[in-house]
Amino acid sequence: MASDRLAIRKILGNCNIVLIAPHAPVAGTVTGEGDIGTLAETLAGHLDSFAVINRKYKKSIVDLDNVQAIRKRKKVEENFLLPVIGFKEEIASNDLTPLVVILQPATDRHTGPARVLFGYGQGERGNPERPHRPTMPPSLLSRIRLKIEDNGIRTDLAPTSSPYTGRERYCLNQLFHQKKKLREFFDPAVRSMLITLSADLVTDSRAVKRTASILAASLQGLRQTMSLVRKVNVAAIDTVNPEDLRFIFRLNGQDPTSELMRRQYIEELAASIRRNGLLHPLVLLQKHDGRYKILCGFRRFQAIKKLGWQWVDAKVYAESDFSTEDFFNISLAENTKRKNLNPIEIGNFLEAAARELGLNNAQLAQRFGESLGIGRPGRQVSQSTIHKYRKVNRMREKGESPQIIADVINERLQFSIAAEVLAPISDPDDRNSLYNEVIRPLAATRPQIIQIIDLLKQVNPSLRQAIDDPDVSRLLRRATEGDHRAAAFIRLLREHLDGTLTRRRERFEAIVDRLRRSLFGDQANKRDFNITAPSRLDRDECTLHIRVRSGNRDQVLEKLRSLAEARRQLDELLALLDQ
């Protein structure tokens, strides 16, 4: 918390005003200066303006009202000066007249009887000691002063001999008005002024609120509101941190399963934008750090970066404008205007909505099912449908089965097969081997896939080990050499299994016959003694049948003791079942 307070705060706005508080110590840390930082934040809220507020650097360390001092410190320049310039450029790029208002507390008695002093670079013509570099038309300044004085606060122009006039060559108030010394920032269209406030106007929270309200009313006449769709500096849009991609449900470059598709799509999109312009603006959210994140249009943003554009048209919302669920709905509506989300992106959306909004599958179906366009037309989306989309997306999130995910995205694999046949296979190795080595090369249909899984499990419960079996590998090679590959593989595999089972059953019965003869003699039959295997030899258990008569009970018990000693034959029987 302390680190947040002792920082340079940047606030995005929706009008042409940029508030700057070069030195805004945390309340109570500097005696007599009041809380100019809270005033700036409160005033920015009233005006919905841009703001840059320094609570980090003390004036004794670096004077942030001195452009020359700032530029000697690269980090300070990046964190303080460049945001000011960026905000000004954003305002100017939207055909508005930038108004820079610098707020500072009075630190001595130069204010005289006035409680608010205005400095706009005023001076005397022909006097080199007092150069005339105005940054604001006096008539506009008079209108502002009149509004303040209507509220019983006395104002005055800062004497040119005082530090509150804002006329010094490297004063922040002169940033955009020095054609020779600060040529790279020169912009004569910018209006700016330095407002100095007596300590009693910002001495406590009540005073701050009243002063902010009065200043806001005085500046309303110069306030120009930005349109919803505006030009935004591309460099001010962040896409690095996961939080910046919070509402991005389209798969992007950070997803390896879509990298190739994404590259091709972005190149085609960039060519289209170069040819036709940006037909649909981005949708951005203002962040609390004075930058933007994308709500909709991530791929358009990537294409624009590829084109090297500096400015982009965007709808801009503040995060405080809507609830999280509203943003999910806005993102969904914007993303499905031109092209529906693919099944993986639908799963990504549902997973994010479940996580962010704390919704279960039934609630997700009710709130978003119709908007996503999933399920059967005219019927309510079921919980199981939502579960399928989320289950397949979780495979992607875990980094499992990238080829399956990529083929669903590229419409080479039906989503229903991925969700209902492949996703339930819990072992990723089994799933990948089945898809990459069998289903994909054989181009198997859904019924064929189900048959293949059933047959492979008869070879080995582990699908991967079954596919690695030399006989199965040989049959796969044969099947891929002709037409109707999947049907051929099913036929070959079934014949192989039938032959293998026949041989195993014959060997099983031969071992049982030897045991019968050794225990009960050559005249014994299956009614006297028999061991039967399960119907398909697919369970490692067998059943013992033995006939007991009233006169041979002791003989039978003796034979059973002998059977218990026949370990080798019994192990051989169980081994046949375990193949």
Description of the molecule:
The protein is about 45% helix and about 10% strand. The chain is α/β, with parallel strands linked by helices and about 575 residues long. The chain folds into four domains: about 1-225, Aminopeptidase (3-Layer(aba) Sandwich); about 225-335, Conserved hypothetical protein from pyrococcus furiosus pfu- 392566-001, ParB domain (Alpha-Beta Complex); about 340-425, no CATH class; about 500-575. The strands form three sheets. A seven-stranded mixed sheet has the order 1-3-2-4-7-5-6, sandwiched between helices. A five-stranded mixed sheet has the order 8-12-10-11-9. Helix 2 crosses helix 6, helix 7 (about 260-275) crosses helix 8 and helix 18 runs antiparallel to helix 19.
Radius of gyration: 39 Å
Mean of residue pLDDT values: 86
What is the level 1 CATH name of the largest domain?
Alpha Beta
Structure class? alpha/beta
Global morphology: elongated
CATH structural architecture of the largest domain:
3-Layer(aba) Sandwich
Q: In the residues, how many domains can be counted?
A: 4
**Largest beta sheet: what is the strand line-up?**
1-3-2-4-7-5-6
